[in-house]
Amino acid sequence: MFTMSDLLPIFPLPNVVLFPNVFLPLHIFEPRYRDMVADAIASDRMLGMVLLKPGWEHEYEGRPPVYPIGCSAVITHVERLADGRYNIVLRGVERFRILAEDHDRSYRRASIEPAAEGALGAEDRAILHRQRSKLEALLAPVIERQIEPSGVVASAPRSTAEALIPSGMPDEDLVNALAQYLDLEPVEKQALLERHGLRSRAESLVELLEMKVLIARTPGLSQVAH
Of 14, 35, 42, 65, which has the fewest Cβ atoms less than 10 A away? Predict the structure, then answer.
């Protein structure tokens, strides 16, 4: 178990939400975030990923508002380029809530409290597994079929489906991975991250995908939904 520093360096981005136990590659080029990565590497390799709130464009160089719930991460791989930029890979560790920010350095740091997912009981695990089955059914048309040049619909290679939804992946990891990697709006991903517990996150992800499928199948519904 990784321990967080009293002040966690936080990396705010406008379009990235990180989930526990999911990997995220990043290219670091801004000077303040190069400083952040260098300091993290010299310390415990921990960072906190947070999402910028809408309107961040007006004060990006400063300290624009962020959502209070983020995900801590450990740097698992780092490549320092000749010009000082970095390529890094993060692994999400656990959710946290920002309590206050410190502005003594070029990058942002925050005092935080863990926002643990909570233990899964037997009933929770059973429901989570049922939600996994629903997710697989919702995504099956996307990952199991492909259009050949002739226009004939054919089944995709089993390895393709297996790569996208590995059967051996634990239910918890699959829900978090889909929440992060599916083509969802950042605010939708943030809402999923803020759900308390994996059971609730899985249920919300199913509802979100069901809504998107319904909108895709019903002409004109997207205008009504907005």
Answer: 42
